[in-house]
Amino acid sequence: MMQYACNIILDMTEQQRIDLVKYRIELANSTLAEIADQKRLGYYNTAVNRMYYACYYAAIALLIAYGKEVKSHAGVRTSLSLNFIKTGILPEDFGAFYSLIFSKRSSGDYEDFITHNEETVDSLMPQVNQFVQTISHIVYDWLSENNN
After folding, report:
1. What are the CA-CA distances from residue 127 to residues 11, 28, 59 (Å)?
2. pTM score over 0.85
3. Among 1, 90, 107, 113, which has the minimal tally of Cβ within 10 Å of its Cβ?
4. Element of type H or E holding 51
5. Cβ–Cβ under 8 Å, residues 33 and 4
6. What are the mean pLDDT values of the chain's consecutive 10-residue runs (148 residues total)?
7. 147: which residues sit within 8 A by CB, 6+ positions away?
8. For 35-78, what is each residue's pLDDT tens digit?
9. Helix-helix angle 93-110:118-145, to 10 degrees
10. What architecture does CATH give domain 11-145?
11. How big is the CA angle at 82 (ends 8 and 111), to the nearest 5 degrees?
């Protein structure tokens, strides 16, 4: 599977696109399930990383479902905002949250001496769950409309 699979969606058959949407939303939910273990083990930076990627995979599933091409993490943020937040499909606070979780993941992964803690994980988890669940419902509705 290509890293940025959604930048090739225009060349996919409808069934390939449906399969990719299913894969990405399942990946979002399985990544979400990893967070508790990372937190229990004290790997808070990794837990934050998995939080971001659960949201990212959900966002990608949504974008692919609706035929939106993106080529970068920033492109996901922009397309999500323009096509789903500003249109009222997703709650307005999802944009700020997605930027926040991206920033937290980036700092934990790339900046020296940044160590997230249990409080950070606990404070972000409800929003991560809401983000993934809300998008999952939209994606599952889309799949249902497409007989899958």
Report:
1. 34, 14, 14
2. yes
3. 113
4. helix 44-65
5. no
6. 50 88 96 96 96 97 92 92 96 96 92 90 98 97 87
7. none
8. 999 999 999 999 999 999 999 999 999 999 999 988 899 999 99
9. 130
10. Up-down Bundle (1.20)
11. 80
Distance (Å, whole) CA 53 – CA 47: 10
Residue 57, token pair as written in the block: 């995979």
Instruction: Give the separation between CA 102 and CA 100, rounded to whole angstroms.
Output: 5
Cα angle value 134/41/124 (rounded, 5°): 30
137-146: list long-range contacts, CB under 8 Å, 24+ apart.
138/62, 138/65, 138/89, 138/90, 139/21, 139/25, 139/58, 139/61, 139/62, 139/65, 140/25, 142/21, 142/65, 142/66, 143/18, 143/21, 143/22, 143/65, 146/14, 146/18
